[in-house]
Amino acid sequence: MNCTLTTRDGVTLEAEWSAPPEPRATAVLCHPHPQYGGTMRSIVTSALFEALPAHGVACLRFNFRGVEGSEGAHSGGEGELLDVLAALDRAAADPAAPEGSPLVLVGWSFGADMALATTDPRVAGWVGIAPPLRFRPAGSYDAVARDPRPKLLVLAAHDEFRTPEEIASEVRDWAATRVEVVAGASHFFVGRTERVVALVGAFVDALATG
Fold first, then answer.
1. CA 140 to CA 85: how far, in whole Å?
2. Helix crossing, 193-208 with 43-51: angle to 10°?
3. Cα–Cα distance between 118 and 141 in angstroms, integer?
4. Banded model confidence at residue 95, pLDDT cuts 50, 70, 90
5. Can you give the residue range of the structural domain that contains 7?
6. 53 - beta bridge partners?
7. How many domains does the chain have?
8. Is 52 helix (H, G, I), strand (E, B) or coil?
9. Which pLDDT value is given to residue 84?
10. pLDDT score at 151
């Protein structure tokens, strides 16, 4: 279902919502870098959006400001944090979601950096897929890093931008953080999206079952 989001600075974003009749969890999906072709229909984001509702997880995906039908312009990660909050507002307000069901923030690449720089009391857990951890200034991830709520980082064994060893070292002191490396995967996870979906699905399952 197509829908729109309105950010706290008045920007209208295009989005899509897909939900089973009685979702047991909700995932907000954040796409890769807008200036390098990233949209809400990019490969990993699309794979999650298509697969998770069949497993009882409602999904909201959206285009960051300046992308396709979304208003505004790319702002280097500043305004995009407001875009993430607008998506959380919409997902948290869904009347079909059972009270207390987990809301998970999931991002890939640039979207992962935006997700991991967003702390909000409504979020039950975070998933960062191939996060470069470079699209926000130093210290931007500290609040989520210290947060006791669970985090999953899904890394690509052959990431072209930052090696999984670099990222694993950078997050070694993060609280409640699990790192999974997808064998044979590049940053774009071509041919490996099923593994990403399985890892994200298992993470959401664990949150939904307590």
1. 16
2. 50
3. 8
4. confident
5. 2-208
6. none
7. 1
8. helix
9. 98
10. 98
84 three-state secondary structure? helix
Task: Please report, as a single letter, which amino acid is at residue 30.
Answer: C
Tokens encoding 66: 């300046």
**Alpha helix stretches (DSSP H) within the chain:** 43-51, 79-92, 110-116, 142-146, 164-170, 193-208
List of long-range contacts for 1-6, beta carbons under 8 Å, 24+ apart: 3/90, 5/62, 5/83, 5/86, 5/87, 5/89, 5/90, 6/86
In this prediction the pTM is: 0.97
Q: What is the C-alpha separation between 104 and 23, in angstroms, rounded? A: 13
Q: What is the Cα Rg of the chain in Å? A: 15
Kindly report the CATH number assigned to the domain that includes residue 135.
3.40.50.1820
What are the residues whose beta carbons fall under 8 Å from the beta carbon of 165, sequence distance 6 or more? none
% of the chain beyond a pLDDT of 90: 95
Residue 59 CB burial class (10 angstroms; 0-12, 13-18, ≥19) = buried
- Over residues 126-149, mean pLDDT: 97
